[in-house]
Every structure is written in structure tokens, then in C-alpha cells.
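hey so u asked for the seq, here:
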Amino acid sequence: MSEEQLKKVMDLFGADFALEAIEDNAMDFDKPIKGGYKARIDKLTRYSGESDKCENGVYDMYSLNLQITEVIEGDEAVNRYVSKTYSNVVGKYQDDAEEGRRKLMNDLFTGGCKYDIVREASTTAEQVVEQVAPQIIDQVVNVRCYPGNTINKKTKEKNQIVRIVKEIKPSKPKAEAVAEDW
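ran it, C-alpha cells below
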């Protein structure tokens, strides 16, 4: 915007108004968050293809993207997006290709998502997920987020772990925690 255009805009607001530069004090999106949150399901997307970086040369997964809508406890993260992936291939962490889809459906059940399924004897877990995907958008679930043990090669930060939980139980200070809490 030129100086002349800026002056015209300022004249519209009157003499008692002055423009002020906005400082960006936003959170570091590369840094993992820690706490309990309410999150809106933004989308469920399937990604598949070939890659030499994968164990078997192929990848096939669902990615559940969530937008934090409310902080119950922990780091400030409203409007931040987190994601959780579910693999559909046999590999290092699972022995069954259906295991990832079952974990996804279990997480949605745990989160209290309401959906309708038309199920027949021949219906596969993949078909169930495809039926459910459009129904869960904008539903709210409870999530527990915390930093993982591995380091992201690009950001040099710990990776973000996201768990969908039935309810957020308040964290207890280390001194008050007892074996029954685990």
C-alpha cells in the first residue's frame, strides 16, 4: 500500500486513530504441545503410494487431522492442528494390514464419535472407514498430547504424540502420583 493510499485509509478512521504494527507472538508450531484438549476432527485422509523410504517399498495410511478447540490443561494450543496416523501395511510396528484401520475405529469409538455403518458379512474394515470418514468431520473428541521419544529430523524437536481418550483426567504432580494412577 502506498503512502497516499494509507493516508486515505487513515482519514476514513479519523484523527484519533493510529495504525500500529502487530507483533507476532505466536506459538512455535514445530515444538510439541503437552496437555489435555478438546479437538475438532478436521479431516480423515488416506495416503498411499510407493517410496524407497518405506520398509516394503509402499506406504498406505490414514491421517486423522484434529484442530484444538479448547485447552483443558497444559500448553496454550487453541487453533493448533495435530494429526494421528494409522498404517494400513504390514511393517515394523504391525503384523496385520487391518490393524491400523481397527485402531482408527477404536479411537473414534473411544472419542465418542457418532456414525452409522451399513455392515454386511463381506464388509471390510477399509469399507467401514470409507463410510465413516465423511460422518465424523466436525465432531469433537478429547485428546492427550505429549512429546515422544524420537526426534524429528527436520525440526530437531521431539515428535508429537496424540492419543484420543474418553475423558481428560487432571494430571497429578509427581509427588502425589501413586501406583494406582497408572
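The mean pLDDT is 83. The beta strands are 35-50, 58-74, 81-87, 140-151, 158-165.
lmk if thats what u needed
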